[in-house]
């Protein structure tokens, strides 16, 4: 098989994905194995792939591929969310471009257009995930408005209604004038907006006195119902119970008192507009004030405003200021920054609005879901989000679940001519509830649809068994899939939907099934540019992932994203990380090419050399130790640490050290046993790396098969993605510590030779100090890599003043270079080493003397710092002794 000089992902990645799909590598059915289940956070059907999706799905794929190789029955379920508000807006815009308005169509006609749009564009993002290498079980692809999944949504609504947890009532909601629908509190995003604070005078009725209020919304004064002051504010005591006149319309409104008003803020006078502010609404209820809704559903002033009728709210705000000035009611305008709610879907400024809507009572659902996380039944990674979760769950208000849209699951409530409400699975069951009073054709269904989150909170249940609520109600066992795959293993999502979706899935799982939906929740950070700015099209700092995939390949992009993606912390994206991923793939590629070169030279059946045997032992231990560290990192979802460990093991330990240790000397050929073991090591490295870089590892796995041990090869499957993950083996830490010192000595010896302008193969004799006898194990490697010989025993004391010295840990190794050296250079290097160790000692002691660190650090961390301190002291002492030895006059 020809091996290009460089790894070329183009074409290769598509070929491997097709082979995996043809072989059904990602399909899962219940069997005797333990399940490892992940459900994809369903992207909106309106969406296309962005870097946030790339990061999230790379993490999911990493976890699912590792589990699959570990022998779990891994099932990763794909699907999309119908995204009521966003999708309806897209369809309305599409129709507008065709000269059609929504009002021109019946509901059924509009839905035909919406379904056609979904079929054309809805699967784009999922198809793009194939380019990423996402190993989803495509046979299980789901959509939140599939008939079966919609049936589950209806069942959930009916059950909650019958349990007394769903009700209909007039409440103040967040209104989206662009989407013309109500929103839940958590669908509102608050943004800092630069505006003006307008100070307006209200004349006190039958007097020449004025009170001044300050508002950022002067266009709403016509809906004022009162002026409110603090009951203990001496400035306004005499006005309580009197009336003030609203400028421009002259309407008299009462001056009331309530401790809610902050005397120190502004003028101490508050305009109360119950229909257009939630806090004012609460005051209005308490004081029995009139509620005047002066805005229509599109955010325009309606006839109740009396003036500026028909104008958009923001245009009315602009035009009312000169009108106030003409009347003499305008005191002043000043710049002001306020936090303004925007629709999460349409970005329109949200209006508080009184509206008849459907709600879910949250308190009874929230408490068990809070305890599931607090008590560790569900674990958040990182756990810093626990306090945020607790705050939301302890303060959540009733959930507004009705939306004034046509795209979505229609609310299963029917109204009879006598005004009664009948909630049932369908109109025929609703008619049965009337006990013969009304027929199905007499009933009219609620026009609203359910909030999209009301379908996606059922996702981990409904994708496996859409009839789970009916089964549970009838005390029947769940179907085979749900019983096997639920609860799922881990959810990977963003912290921005911790309450939107994560908390609600926990609530739904507990309420409808009796079990939590997942054990772990991994919360990713936001992908930002290298300046820390959030990616956005308007800033022009958001590269197209498909362009990056075409340029660098999926493996390089996956690794580049994971290099700097600690859980819950934002990722600073830089294209140089993709370059690093590409270089890494090439490093691995070249390692395989080197093995193939040795293979093509015709390896011999000779015994393994001593240095090669020691190299094999050393790398086997490095592999075992790294796997142990990897398991700890995986258990804590420290995925950036996973990448760092694998990267170092492959780049440094295998490619830089091990392959150099076993490389045949000039004129020799590789031993077949060494080549086979090197290939087996590479096979395990490919397996460790496969979840991160699936394409290059699968390709190299196939290419190294001729080099492998037949017995080991027989344990694998045709594809690496289905072959066993390397098993953990015993780690001899004492041996590895000694090997680390020996390799550090190699680095020091190479530096010594370079400093003294000695050739790499220049022979030298080393005299290790007492306590370094273990170097004998590594003498073949030391000789192979640095051309040195070791001499132990009494010889060390002979002619000491003629020798140079290097540190091996905290002990010295004397060097006879065989030629006269420049003493000044040696002294200069020792002084540099001494300066470094003294600065290092200062940094360690500063940490140990820090009360915060000393009181909070775990015992093992403190012990490690104390060991660093002692090692630094030992090295400083040895270096000072060496300085005195080489330069007695300095003593």
Explain the layout of strands and helices.
Elements: H1 12-22, E1 35-39, H2 51-69, E2 73-77, E3 79-80, H3 84-97, H4 107-121, H5 124-132, E4 142-143, H6 147-162, E5 166-176, E6 181-183, E7 188-204, E8 210-215, E9 226-229, E10 243-245, E11 252-257, E12 270-272, H7 278-287, H8 313-327, E13 330-343, E14 351-360, H9 363-374, E15 379-381, H10 386-395, E16 399-400, E17 402-403, E18 413-415, E19 421-423, H11 427-433, E20 444-445, E21 449-450, H12 453-456, H13 459-462, H14 468-473, H15 480-485, E22 488-493, H16 498-513, E23 518-523, E24 527-529, H17 545-552, H18 554-563, E25 571-573, H19 575-600, H20 610-635, H21 639-662, H22 672-689, H23 694-703, H24 710-713, H25 733-755, E26 764-768, H26 779-786, E27 788-790, E28 804-808, E29 811-816, H27 823-848, H28 851-856, H29 859-886
Parallel strand pairs: 1-2, 3-4, 9-11, 15-23, 22-23, 24-25, 26-27
Antiparallel strand pairs: 5-6, 5-14, 7-8, 7-10, 7-13, 9-12, 10-11, 14-16, 17-21, 18-19, 18-20, 26-29, 28-29
Helix pairs in contact: 1-23, 3-4, 9-10, 9-16, 17-18, 18-19, 19-21, 19-22, 20-21, 20-22, 20-25, 20-26, 21-22, 22-23, 27-29
């Amino acid at each position: 098989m020809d091996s290009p000089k460089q790894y070329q992902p183009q074409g290769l990645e598509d070929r491997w994905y097709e082979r995996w799909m043809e072989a059904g590598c990602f399909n899962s059915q219940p069997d005797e194995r333990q399940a490892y289940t992940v459900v994809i956070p369903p992207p909106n059907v309106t969406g296309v792939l962005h870097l946030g999706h790339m990061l999230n799905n790379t993490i999911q794929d990493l976890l699912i591929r590792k589990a699959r190789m570990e022998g779990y029955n891994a099932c990763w379920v794909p699907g999309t969310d119908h995204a009521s508000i966003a999708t309806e807006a897209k369809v309305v815009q599409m129709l507008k471009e065709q000269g059609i308005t929504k009002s021109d169509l019946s509901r059924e006609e509009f839905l035909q257009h919406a379904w056609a749009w979904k079929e054309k564009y809805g699967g784009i993002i999922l198809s793009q995930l194939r380019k990423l290498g996402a190993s989803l079980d495509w046979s299980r692809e789901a959509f939140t408005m599939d008939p079966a999944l919609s049936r589950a949504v209806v069942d959930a609504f009916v059950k909650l209604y019958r349990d007394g947890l769903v009700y209909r009532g007039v409440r103040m909601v967040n209104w989206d004038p662009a989407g013309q629908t109500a929103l839940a509190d958590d669908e509102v995003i608050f943004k800092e907006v630069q505006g003006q604070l307008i100070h307006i005078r209200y004349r006190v009725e039958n007097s020449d006195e004025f009170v001044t209020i300050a508002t950022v919304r002067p266009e709403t004064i016509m809906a004022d119902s009162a002026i409110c002051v603090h009951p203990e504010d001496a400035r306004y005591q005499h006005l309580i119970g009197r009336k003030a006149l609203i400028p421009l319309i002259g309407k008299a409104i009462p001056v009331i008192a309530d401790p809610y008003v902050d005397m120190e803020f502004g003028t101490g006078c508050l305009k109360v507009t119950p229909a257009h502010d939630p806090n004012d609404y609460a005051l209005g209820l308490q004081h029995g004030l009139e509620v005047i809704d002066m805005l229509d559903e599109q955010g325009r002033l309606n006839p109740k405003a009396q003036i500026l009728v028909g104008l958009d709210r923001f245009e009315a705000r602009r035009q009312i200021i000169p009108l106030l000035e003409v009347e003499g009611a305008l005191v002043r305008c000043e710049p002001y920054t306020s936090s303004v709610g925007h629709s999460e879907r349409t970005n329109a400024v949200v209006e508080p609005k009184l509206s008849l809507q459907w709600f879910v009572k949250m308190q009874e659902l929230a408490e068990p879901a809070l305890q599931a996380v607090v008590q560790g039944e569900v674990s958040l990674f990182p756990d810093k989000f626990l306090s945020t979760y607790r705050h939301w769950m302890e303060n959540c208000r009733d959930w507004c679940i009705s939306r004034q849209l046509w795209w979505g699951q229609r609310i299963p409530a029917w109204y009879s001519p006598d005004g009664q409400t009948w909630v049932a699975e369908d109109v025929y069951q609703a008619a049965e509830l009337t006990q013969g009073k009304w027929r199905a054709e007499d009933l009219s269904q609620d026009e609203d649809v359910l909030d999209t989150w009301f379908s996606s909170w059922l996702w981990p249940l409904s994708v496996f068994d859409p009839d789970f609520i009916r089964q549970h109600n009838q005390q029947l066992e769940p179907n085979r899939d749900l019983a096997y795959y639920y609860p799922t293993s881990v959810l990977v999502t963003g912290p921005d939907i911790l309450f939107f979706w994560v908390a609600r899935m926990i609530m739904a799982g507990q309420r409808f099934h009796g079990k939590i939906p997942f054990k772990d929740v991994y919360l990713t950070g936001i992908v930002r540019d290298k300046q820390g700015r959030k990616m956005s099209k308007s800033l022009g700092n958001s590269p197209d992932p498909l362009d990056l995939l075409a340029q660098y390949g999926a493996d390089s992009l996956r690794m580049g994203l994971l290099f700097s993606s600690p859980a819950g912390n934002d990722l600073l994206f830089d294209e140089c990380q993709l370059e690093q991923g590409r270089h890494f793939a090439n490093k691995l590629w070249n390692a395989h090419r080197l093995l193939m070169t040795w293979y093509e030279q015709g390896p011999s059946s000779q015994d393994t050399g001593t240095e090669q045997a020691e190299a094999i032992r050393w790398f086997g231990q490095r592999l075992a130790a790294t796997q142990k560290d990897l398991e700890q990192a995986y258990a804590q979802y420290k995925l950036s640490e996973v990448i760092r460990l694998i990267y170092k093991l492959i780049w440094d330990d295998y490619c830089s050290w091990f392959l150099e240790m076993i490389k045949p000397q000039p004129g020799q050929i590789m031993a077949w046993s060494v080549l086979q073991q090197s290939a087996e090591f590479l096979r395990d490295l490919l397996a460790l790396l496969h979840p991160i870089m699936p394409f290059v590892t699968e390709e190299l796995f196939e290419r190294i098969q001729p080099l492998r041990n037949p017995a080991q090869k027989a344990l694998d499957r045709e594809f690496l993605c289905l072959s066993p993950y390397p098993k953990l083996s015993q780690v001899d830490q004492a041996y590895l510590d000694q090997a680390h010192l020996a390799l550090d000595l190699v680095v020091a010896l190479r530096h010594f030779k370079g400093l003294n302008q000695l050739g790499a193969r220049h022979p030298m004799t080393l005299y290790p100090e007492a306590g370094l006898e273990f170097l004998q194990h590594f003498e073949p490697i030391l000789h192979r890599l640095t051309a040195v010989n070791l001499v132990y025993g009494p010889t060390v004391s002979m002619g000491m003043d003629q020798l140079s010295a290097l540190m091996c840990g905290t002990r010295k190794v004397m060097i006879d270079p065989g030629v006269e050296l420049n003493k000044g250079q040696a002294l200069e290097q020792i002084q540099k080493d001494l300066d470094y160790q003294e600065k290092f000692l200062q940094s360690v002691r500063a940490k140990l003397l820090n009360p915060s660190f000393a009181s909070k650090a775990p015992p093992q961390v403190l012990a490690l710092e104390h060991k660093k301190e002692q090692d630094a002291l030992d090295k400083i002492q040895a270096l000072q002794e060496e300085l005195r030895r080489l330069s007695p006059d300095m003593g």
